[in-house]
Amino acid sequence: MRLLFLLSIFFLLLNCEDKQSKKKNNSLNTSTETETKKPETKTSENEEPKRKYPKLDSKNAMEFFLHYEKENKENKVRMTTDFGVIDILLFNETKFHRANFIFLTKQNYFNDTQFYRVINNFMVQAGNSDDKKTARKRAFIGRYLLPTDTKRGFKHDRGVISMPSGEIDNPHKLASPFEFFIVQQKGGAHFLDGDYTIFGKVIKGMDVVDRIAAVDTDEADWPLKNIFIRTIEIIE
Are 185 and 213 in contact (CB under 8 A)? Predict the structure, then answer.
């Protein structure tokens, strides 16, 4: 009788151990399946895109454009705005400013920037925006100025495209590379001659410039309704 009792306990313990073993194996398999799943990869919106060109600054910009202008000879661009299309010829004589404009065009910098200063019968100024995306583009490209180049014989006639002074401490009126203005004034704005670099002219679309110049603006000359440059693309 005692022997039978001991055998019963032995088989009971063996059965319990087998169940625990199966339970552990099931748990292990589930854990293994979880661990072998590939983790999801997420790309941050603030992640900097791959850089093809160096970040530009006051020390390397001129040397960069000295080489860039030799390899990028394009000099005609098409600007598509909310008011229509404007074609621009860039002057080869102002090579650094032409190269800078072509470089920024190829970087898609101007896309979705705005005409942010408009004065009828004077000029329309563009290349900036209150959108953070524009600020990020500038930060990625770099912070630099271009020297003035005012002795090429060009005058601030109606239709020329010129470069305003930069916002950086700038007693010599060095040019802001990201912005430009188009003279809309009939008869020209020759009081600007000698201070700002003319680097191109409108060859088609001055009627579009006139329509932009005629819009209502606030006290800071910013159009009451935003006027965007949708794209600038190279046509030649």
Answer: no
Residues whose CB falls within 8 Å of the CB of residue 83, separated by 6 or more in sequence, listed in order: 208, 211, 212, 227
Q: What SS3 state is found at 138?
A: helix
**Beta pairing partners, 180:** 126
> 121: which DSSP letter?
T
Tokens of 20: 């625990």
116 closest CA partner among 98, 141, 134: 134
C-alpha separations of 136 from 70, 113, 131, 133 in Å: 28, 12, 9, 5
**What would the 3-class secondary structure string for 157-218 be?**
CCCEEEECECCCCCCCCCECCCCEEEECCCCCCHHHCCCCEEEEEEEECHHHHHHHHCCCEC
Burial label for 147, CB within 10 Å (0-12, 13-18, 19+), is middle
Note the pLDDT tens digit of each residue in 39-77: 334 445 556 668 899 999 999 999 999 999 999 999 999
pLDDT digits (tens, 9 = 90+) for 83-102: 999 999 999 999 999 999 99
